[in-house]
Amino acid sequence: MSIDLGSRPRLAPGCRMEEKTHEPRTLLMPERALRLNGPSLEIVERCDGQHTVQQIITELQQRYSKAEPAKVQEDILGYLALLEKERALDFEPRNT
With bands split at pLDDT 50, 70 and 90, how would you rate the model's confidence at 52? Predict the structure, then answer.
């Protein structure tokens, strides 16, 4: 499945971020957990149902400006697809 750049990812029901007081941050999912740091944490923090996939890509391309923009986009799309496959993310369609 191709991810629509206008869609807005958010954590799926039953998934949540561990409290900010714990380091490293952990994404809690039914029957499993995923430790997040660096870019993976920055991606998941933006999966709030408000940011579009394109906004997430643009923000992180600016943050990691020394990296090749196409590579940043490819990595973000790959990570979002992985989280969707793990049923950790849902994508709300773009507003029409």
Answer: very high
